[in-house]
Inverse folding.
């Protein structure tokens, strides 16, 4: 059944009502998106009482403490000068999101204002002033001065005292503006976009900040009072106070006369140690509390330590270091920059990018401020990174990956060029045409029986020298990369030591841990590269005898070995750190001092053990690569070679030159890398050779 059509007027009224409903919905959603979802202040504040402001918590007393306490002054001064000395740049964001792809912007109004905030303040002075307020009160407030004719254009930035500015709070709007109170009590209303706040969050008040000094006021007062007591002690002739007893009550005239004469004759340093004469039965009674009983020496140590603890400020950052060397000094600089400078700079960067830059509209839509990295560059880590990438690139290419894809994956420079290698010739199996006779090996086993004695000739030939050169080159490259891994693991261990010692949980030093993901990946790649190289070397030895054998695409069993070795080396480093921390720890020794000595100890460790373990892993990969290349190749003779050993033990001398009954017998002896019966264990450099020619005299 067809519906009757509506009259044109009714259709227009319905469309108007529909559009109005949509507008109301959009308006409602817009208002809701700009309001607080829950009230932060009482609802009564919305009934004409939004002028009730959130008050600061004793900000004036906290700022006064800066000039009254030497430890606090030195600490805050160091923090603000460090923060103010870092350079800033304006960047155009990259589509990739990577920092290295950004482009620096050298001309922009926002950059001009940031570099010269106003006529009287430099950028450094502005940052130092704001950071000083932040470390003392937990708050930084910047006022934006604008062009009266074009209010949307910010022209200047001014820092103001935290105790003079108050947000006008509201249950739904959260903040409706700010009020600045001048020195004479005059109040200046400010719009929300006239103020740039930076807070250390206060858990009880979302409108104000909370700094460490607020938790330290009693400690600071205690130190102040003890110093005043000491000052008065010396003003009173460096003697404790006392009481003068009289037998009879003194008249007012007698009391005033005695007081004035006593002050004239005995108060002040110039009257120290003068003999007092007491009349009419007067007696002097000493006070019972002495300086020793007041424990001023202990109090003088407690207050600075508590101030540093509240700021998370290590002793070495104030120059308090009992044992220092170059390594510990560089580590101290890096730790200070990472833990103290970077978080403060990040707070400034957030304010600039989230509040300041949006004031410039679309001209700053794709821009961001960023600071120069304050963490000192680690030359050793940078070199290790380059070596690691080079080794990884070689490993991937040796494994058959395309060079361009490797360059992209490892983020290598575009200046590197890759030439695609020629494909290998098809394999020629023994007995096929083209197989040439080869010379017999230099060492000839006495019999086919396993484990028979080796001949006297123990000099390595050219093939074995190449095998040794391959191993030494791969080990040298791996040790360079591993230096960076060790440095990163040390950087993980030192904060753990500091936290454990500071908490007093010394038993936890036995449970230090390091991350071995990178170490496992690097060793896995190095072993794969060593195995692939050994396989190609064995194929070349076969080709020299006229036999073409295929190079295996993959080698079994190397990955779990790499993971186990990396884990054991990491645990060994963690145990070394824990043992040294236990050795140098004593009650009262600062946690940072223990960590510095642990760091120096780890830096001084010999690489002999590391060389042995990594060398054994590469030996395993080399022998697996050699054996897998000639696995079950017809007419192959497998025999042991120990000519690469520098100090050959008796079992290795006995196996040297022995012909194995099968590939399986050779694998059982050398498939684990080193010869299983070798007394030198991981230092063994024995391997397996293969020939395809009848032995003379067999």
């Amino acid at each position: 059944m067809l519906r009757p059509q509506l009259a044109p007027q009714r259709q227009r009224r319905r469309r108007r009502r529909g559009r109005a409903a949509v507008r109301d919905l959009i308006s409602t959603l817009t208002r809701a998106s700009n309001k607080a979802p829950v009230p932060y202040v009482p609802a009564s504040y919305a009934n004409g009482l939004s002028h009730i402001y959130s008050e600061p918590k004793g900000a004036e007393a906290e700022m006064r403490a800066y000039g009254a306490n030497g430890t606090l002054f030195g600490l805050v001064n160091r923090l603000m000068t460090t923060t103010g000395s870092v350079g800033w740049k304006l960047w155009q964001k990259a589509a990739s999101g990577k920092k290295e792809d950004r482009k620096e912007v050298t001309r922009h109004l926002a950059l001009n204002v940031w570099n010269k905030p106003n006529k009287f303040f430099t950028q450094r002075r502005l940052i130092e002033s704001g950071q000083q307020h932040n470390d003392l009160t937990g708050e930084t407030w910047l006022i934006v001065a604008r062009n009266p004719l074009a209010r949307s254009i910010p022209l200047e930035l001014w820092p103001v005292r935290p105790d003079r500015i108050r947000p006008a709070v509201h249950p739904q709007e959260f903040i409706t503006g700010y009020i600045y109170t001048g020195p004479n009590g005059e109040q200046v209303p400010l719009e929300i976009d006239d103020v740039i706040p930076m807070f250390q969050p206060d858990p009880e008040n979302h409108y104000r900040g909370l700094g460490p000094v607020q938790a330290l006021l009693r400690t600071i007062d205690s130190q102040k009072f003890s110093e005043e007591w000491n000052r008065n002690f010396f003003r009173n002739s460096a003697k404790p106070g006392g009481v003068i007893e009289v037998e009879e009550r003194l008249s007012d005239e007698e009391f005033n006369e005695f007081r004035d004469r006593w002050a004239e004759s005995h108060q002040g340093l110039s009257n120290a140690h003068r003999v007092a004469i007491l009349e009419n039965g007067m007696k002097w009674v000493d006070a019972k509390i002495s300086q020793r009983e007041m424990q001023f020496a202990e109090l003088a140590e407690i207050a600075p330590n508590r101030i540093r603890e509240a700021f998370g400020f290590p002793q070495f950052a104030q120059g308090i270091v009992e044992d220092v060397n170059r390594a510990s000094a560089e580590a101290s600089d890096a730790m200070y920059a990472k833990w103290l400078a970077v978080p403060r700079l990040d707070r400034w960067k957030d304010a600039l990018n989230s509040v300041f830059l949006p004031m410039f509209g679309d001209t700053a839509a794709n821009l961001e401020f960023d600071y120069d990295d304050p963490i000192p560059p680690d030359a050793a880590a940078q070199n290790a990174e380059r070596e690691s990438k080079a080794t990884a690139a070689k490993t991937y290419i040796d494994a058959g990956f395309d060079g361009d894809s490797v360059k992209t994956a490892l983020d290598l420079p575009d200046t590197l060029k890759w030439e695609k290698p020629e494909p290998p010739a098809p394999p020629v199996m023994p007995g096929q045409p083209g197989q040439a006779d080869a010379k017999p090996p230099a060492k000839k086993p006495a019999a086919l029986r396993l484990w028979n004695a080796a001949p006297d000739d123990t000099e390595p030939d050219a093939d074995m020298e190449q095998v040794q050169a391959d191993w030494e080159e791969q080990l040298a490259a791996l040790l360079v990369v591993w230096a960076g891994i060790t440095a990163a693991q040390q950087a993980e261990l030192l904060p753990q030591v500091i936290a454990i010692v500071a908490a007093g949980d010394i038993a936890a030093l036995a449970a230090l841990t390091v991350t071995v993901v990178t170490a496992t990946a690097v060793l896995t790649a190095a072993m794969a590269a060593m195995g692939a190289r050994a396989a190609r070397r064995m194929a070349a030895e076969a080709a020299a005898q006229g036999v073409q054998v295929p190079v295996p695409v993959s080698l079994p069993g190397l990955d779990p070995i790499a993971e186990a070795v990396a884990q054991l080396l990491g645990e060994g480093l963690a145990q070394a750190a824990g043992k040294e921390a236990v050795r140098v720890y004593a009650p009262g020794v600062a946690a940072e001092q223990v960590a510095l000595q642990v760091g120096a100890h780890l830096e001084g460790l010999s690489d002999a053990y590391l060389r042995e373990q990594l060398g054994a892993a590469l030996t395993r990969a080399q022998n697996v690569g050699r054996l897998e290349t000639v696995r079950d190749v017809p007419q192959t003779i497998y025999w042991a070679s120990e000519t690469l050993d520098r100090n050959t033990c008796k079992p290795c001398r006995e196996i040297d030159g022995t012909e194995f009954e099968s590939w399986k017998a050779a694998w059982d002896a050398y498939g684990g890398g080193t010869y299983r019966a070798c007394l030198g264990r991981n230092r063994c450099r024995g391997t397996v050779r293969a020939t395809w020619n009848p032995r003379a005299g067999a």
Remarks:
- The first strand starts at residue 88 and ends at 92.
